[in-house]
Design a protein that fits this description.
By secondary structure, the chain is mainly α. The chain has 14 helices and no strands.
Length: 310
Amino acid sequence: MLRKYISRRIGAAFATVWLATIVVFFLLSLVPGDPVFLMLMEAGGLPPTPEQLSETRAKLGFDQPTHVRYMIWVRNMLRGDFGESMQTGLPVATMLRSAFGATIQLALASMLVAILIAFPAGILAATKQNTIADSVARFGSLLGLSMPSFWLALLFMLLFGLQLRWLPVFGFGTLRHLILPALTVGTGMAALSARLIRSSMLDVLKEDFIRTARAKGLSERVVIWVHALKCAMIPVITILGLQLGFALGGSGIVETVFAWPGMGRMMVSAIFARDFVVVQGVTFMFAVTITTANTLVDILYVYIDPRIRY
């Protein structure tokens, strides 16, 4: 039964990625403007001649119908060839490997920040309901949800980078460069997770088995951290899995503000440059990372709660 469920989830993930590539590929073909014209215009500084346009379109495959170009792209992609950037001429696969490594660092660090903030805050708010601690935790989570990521990034840069001069405000390569972007992304993730943990814990703490555990003389720490938290984890894991998937997909605004060379910044640059080859490659990686995270969460449900079967 479990093997069948996992097979269905993996099959659904492959179908989702495939549909995402189809939608994005055909939508890009409808975008106004000629990317070949813009590429030649930037390279030469002068409007290209019709002969140059025709030659370059044939070289890049833009003279083919959209469905033919899509089939060629899929065939090459399955061999690990995502084409070459129209802007830089570099292999997109090489660019993706470099950017994905930076994005993984930021995503995992952000998730660590979110967990370290959200779990203590959410559990404290639930166990101290209607107290000052609960009010502070709820206000903090609401504040975190209300602040746009770009504004929070600028605030952290101003405070920790320019005023206190504790951390660098941009760049990549050391742990100190990672702290501010991770705090920015992780704070937003923690705000939503803390509210969900509080809500789930409050529901679980009202259950009969919690009263039974307390009646047996178990310590409050065991009741909260062993019995209650495990049962409250299903919705929490759902949101954490979604957040991790989107973080692995790249936080474009935050990466751009901090000059972090991840996939989000790579996507933003490619969109502004009309570099459709890079956009297609990054979109594929987005789809793969998000669906993989969601599929792993669905499989994890079964091990957390054996009652879950589909």
